[in-house]
Amino acid sequence: MTNLELLDLLRCEVVPAIGCTEPIAVALCVARAKEKLGAQPDKIKVLLSKNVYKNALAVGIPNTGMTGLPIAIALGATIGRSEYMLEVLRDATPQAVAYAKDYMLRVPADIQIHYDAPSMLYIHAEVACGDKTAQATIQDGHTHFVDEAVSDAEAVKTEEATQDNKVLTLKRVYDFSQEVDIEEVTFLLEGAEMNKQAAETSFANEYGHKLGRLLHSSTLKQTPQLQQLFGDTIFTKIVSYTCGACDARMSGAMVPVMSNSGSGNQGISCSVPVYLYAKENKCTREQTLRALTLSNLTVIYIKQSLGRLSALCGCVVAATGSAAGITLLMGGGYEEITYAIKNMIANISGMICDGAKPGCALKVTSGVSTAIFSAYLAIQHSFADSTEGIVEDDIDRTIRNLTRIGHDGMQVTDDLILDIMTHKN
How far apart are alpha carbons 290 and 81 in whole angstroms? Predict the structure, then answer.
């Protein structure tokens, strides 16, 4: 891919989002169907792939104090605006939420799992008002409507992009991060700052498991036992801010975050650690932007073969991006970056995704901690080699081994996870 195409890819995949992207995408699909209908629906049916259903089951919906799909669908049908894309619930004021809660009781949505969906990311909404009906379908991407006309030129462009994506390598990702005009990627720095602000929201409130707040310096200073155990260090600060942003987001805080590859948690996990490491070590603006570019694009590269949704936890992928970015900031080059990624894949590659929820902050903590360890070991030229597990000498083959396990090998795991989640006592 050319530098211009990679820049376009970054701009396409790194975008603002409010709330967990799966229920938000469902709300977006319902909002688009409602707009086609031209009226507020009196009937709603939603058909979801297993992975979308799993990720929307227990996560907080912004500004509602509620979790799950019914309220997300109700908001999409009442105040959702599809032009906002992943910020579709931007207008969820207290008054709008109160109306949506009443609407949810009057017009309960028929929510079904499509076990044979054509994609792991599939959302189909059918709405009606009297005899009039409309529908919308999202597939493959959180904002990719597939039931709407696409011009021949757009179809050709999409096909060319798909072909180009097949030849992307980690070396190409690294070279781009070193060559790109940093003024073209300033939005990555703005996104990292946005995600840091989301974390600061969590420190002033009690969101989720309050892990970020627990590890924040203000809490540590007031609790000698915690101070002694964790210490007020750069490491603790990075972990605190990263999982703090996740705490707020998974609990439904009305805060925007910059997402990556359709996931806010991935956007947080590949930007906040790199940004804070750079800030705490007084790295230059250029160094910070190049490291953020490397981290974000590494995540996009891995997700291309893994897929948008899988049974493999996204924080593993996102934290791998951070490991690469932090290694660069530590003074490492391409070789050391490959070492860091091998260390990540040798460590937490089997972490499952059991849906979006407050507990995601715990997994983010594991991912980010491992990223820092992996980067430091890489700088010392200590890394997992081809004699260890799924690691190979070639870094791109090593990454493919990870994504093959997540995309192909964990299909049965994914079904079992959903079965457990939907049949709890």
Answer: 35
